[in-house]
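Hi P.,

Sorry for the delay on this. The queue was packed all week, but I finally got your sequence through. Input first:
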Amino acid sequence: MKHKFTFFLMLIFASANSYAQNEIWETQLNAHNITYLDRIYFLDENYGWTIWGCYFFTSDGGENWYLDPSCLSSNHSGSDIVFINQDTGFIAGGNGTIHKTTNGGLSWMPIQTPATQNVIKLFFVDEYNGWATLGQYSEGNILHTSDGGNTWEIIEIQIDGIQSIFFIDNNIGWLIGWLGPPIGKGVILKTTNAGEDFEIQYTADFYNYFEGLFFISEQIGWAVGYKNSMDYLVLHTENGGATWTEQTLPDNHYGTPTQANCVYFADDTTGWIGTSGPGGGAIYFTNDGGQNWHVQQLFSQAVFDIQMLNRDTGWAVGSGFVYHTTNGSLITNVIENQATEKQFKITPNPVTNTFHIETNSAISCENCQLEITNITGNSILRLSSISFEAITSKSIDLSNYPAGIYFVTIRYESNHQIKCFNQKIIRL
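Then the structure:
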């Protein structure tokens, strides 16, 4: 595989764009000025790909990313990418085309399927058996291959469209889709015979739709999306989808998430959800199967896809950014508005020009982070690897910033958990 990197045009170095070294998720790739990205796929701890249109590739776990130059001058760009080994991979292309490589991306062969709609998402259960969803006006059809993607057949499903698909083996799988106007609502379907028959298991309320789907076993799974009130939707099943129960995400300092975009579980208790919301996105984490979800980290962009190799190592993608974690099972504890646990105090608030941060904590911290963001989630101040003493010894000046609402965030590690203090302040 080493010789293949000479064919990639651009080396994008890992970026320190948004988060300090003590963050759970750190920015590895900042490509938002080059292309949009919303899908991530890692074969193992080294080989990974991210795509929307053009794709980037890494062979060292994301330390370095390479942009495929030929995607700008050829027709193998797409909306999803999957590899089943280091050599063989697939790209979801336009007009019913799926592109296949057998040499690690040096060249791509277009395979015309019987479909005419754009191919949207891909899912392979092994080197032979794979599935693909189709774009608008697909009349609920999906594609299936049993010969490693060389030929594809259409499977007709009597709903209006398919969003995502997930199989745990060659026979048992689920898909999420929607029933179009005049009904307008999401549905979950299941097959136990390799797609010969799909039965509707769950029908959402009017104008509630699904975006992501994940099963950890034949019995335990999650479906996520959004409600007609611009509110997130998280559903969980423990009986293979026969019944679904709703789970709750806490608010973060951006407010209530308006949409849950993706879900991933490393085992039946440890999972992550990526969301969108006013001002930015968030990754939520649970270590008890979703009985309790915690705000693990906030981002200035929506989080559209997450893939974990285990409970600690994984990647996430949103807009043009790729994020990486090696301690993904840590919980961020937000202690704002809990007076008995509040370690910091901001005075004055509201702020005219300057303010001070005071602490009564006996904890010694030399590796803290202080960040101030505006109402849109953009950072106006970030200090990393500092102590509590450094945070509290100087005043902070906001006189050069417009009046409005700001958020002060202090992060530090204690008892192997990332603690997070958030406080809203008003600049007069």
